[in-house]
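re: the backbone from monday

yeah here it is again, tokenized this time
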């Protein structure tokens, strides 16, 4: 029988008052690493997040032959492209690794074998693998484990996919497409396309690297993206703080009636986490952004919310935790695709909140949350970092919440537990863990 590691979520004895400094964005870091690996010369990535997901990307690229070295600190990386060769890639549970690196692997001269955590073997991958086959790739398998037989290049061309399960299917094809002989045209034909900010992030970073990309707004073709073949220009990337990782700390202010500030918040960004400002405002919090510092002050009574999270689904666990502690009912819509994330997040959230005495009902595309008094108990993380942080939020105001496997937060934020505990100390300024640290 496997022993379960439990972490008692700290109870806030008074309103939280803290400044929290966050490390770099996982989504931007992993995109920058791929573009740097495919560039025509060396690039530098400054402020890179060092977490399980990003270290898996670094290790995967190194195994393919790319040189990635630390410069002065683990968060500054020098990336030198090389001729790609056969390798074995561990995806862990990282969607960006299992969905972005297969396209890179088609450019390798040799066989590239992919596998990952047991939970990763149920994550949908056939969409991107079938698309690569349609563009000329030879691939065995439709999910982890699978094998890409690289031939030193890929024909490319036009492919139609149903990306309603994940925007990563689109990004995974676009990121390497400039190196395909014909580039690529990706058409989405299916259900509503989720997480558009992440596709916008991909397009923006490709353009920063000198790649010509035609988006639907440019071509007038709905749900169609075209990348022309050509060089990827080396870029000295500077990574923004991870705004989605900031949301649990900002939620701490909202649920305790305290004040939390996050410095270095960008004035403009494609990160979905920026939308959390509007959600907090709608639930009654006071939100201000001045001199690149975002400050949230919680209300006396947190209101419920009716919100479409389709484009910002990764915020759902945090919003659900807030809704479970609000004074009125909430409806979270547009997030049916979360059933295919690290875990089935809709089922997980309803199960765990209801297990604490809550009242959550799954709908066809989301959750209805009717707040009732909660009690202590075990909160399962399902090896999902955002489920773990949602349990920590509830534990601020509900005594006796034990989060299992809180260490899964190292996927995107190593040292989360220490930062969370430090946030509750008077006049504290929690800093991120030492780069490369593991909890």
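seq for it, each position gets an aa:
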């Amino acid at each position: 029988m496997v022993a379960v590691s439990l972490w008692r979520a700290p109870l806030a004895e008074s309103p939280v008052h803290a400044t929290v400094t966050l490390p770099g964005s996982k989504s931007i870091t992993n995109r920058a690493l791929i573009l740097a690996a495919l560039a025509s010369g060396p690039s530098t990535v400054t402020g890179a997040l060092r977490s399980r997901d990003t270290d898996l990307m670094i290790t995967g690229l190194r195994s393919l032959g790319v040189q990635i070295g630390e410069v002065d600190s683990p968060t500054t990386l020098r990336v030198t492209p090389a001729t790609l060769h056969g390798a074995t890639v561990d995806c862990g549970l990282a969607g960006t690794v299992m969905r972005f690196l297969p396209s890179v692997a088609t450019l390798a001269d040799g066989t590239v074998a992919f596998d990952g955590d047991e939970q990763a073997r149920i994550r949908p991958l056939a969409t991107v693998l079938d698309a690569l086959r349609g563009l000329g790739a030879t691939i065995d398998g439709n999910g982890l484990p699978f094998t890409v037989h690289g031939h030193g290049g890929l024909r490319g061309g036009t492919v139609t996919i149903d990306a309603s399960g994940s925007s990563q299917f689109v990004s995974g094809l676009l990121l390497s497409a400039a190196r395909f002989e014909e580039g690529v045209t990706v058409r989405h034909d299916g259900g509503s396309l989720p997480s558009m900010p992440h596709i916008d992030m991909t397009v923006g970073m490709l353009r920063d690297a000198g790649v010509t990309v035609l988006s639907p707004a440019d071509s007038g073709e709905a749900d169609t993206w075209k990348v022309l073949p050509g060089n990827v220009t080396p870029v000295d990337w500077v990574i923004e703080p991870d705004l989605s990782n900031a949301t649990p700390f900002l939620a701490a202010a909202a649920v305790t009636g305290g004040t939390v500030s996050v410095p270095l918040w960008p004035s403009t960004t494609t990160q979905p986490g920026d939308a959390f400002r509007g959600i907090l405002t709608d639930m009654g919090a006071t939100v201000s952004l001045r001199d690149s510092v975002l400050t949230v002050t919680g209300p006396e009574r947190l209101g419920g919310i009716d919100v479409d999270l389709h484009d910002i689904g990764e915020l759902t666990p945090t919003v659900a935790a807030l809704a479970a502690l609000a004074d009125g009912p909430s409806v979270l819509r547009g997030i049916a695709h979360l059933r295919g994330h690290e875990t089935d997040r809709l089922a997980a959230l309803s199960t765990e909140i209801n297990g604490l005495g809550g009242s959550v009902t799954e709908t066809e595309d989301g959750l209805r949350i009717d707040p009732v008094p909660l009690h202590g108990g075990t909160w399962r993380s399902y090896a999902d970092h955002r489920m773990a942080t949602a349990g920590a939020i509830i534990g601020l105001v509900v005594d006796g919440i034990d989060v299992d496997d809180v260490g899964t937060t190292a996927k995107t934020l190593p040292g989360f537990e220490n930062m969370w505990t430090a946030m509750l100390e008077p006049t504290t300024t929690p800093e991120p863990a030492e780069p490369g640290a593991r909890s």
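Residues 6-24+241-423 form a domain with the UDP-n-acetylglucosamine1-carboxyvinyl-transferase; Chain fold (CATH 3.65.10.10). The radius of gyration is 21 Å.
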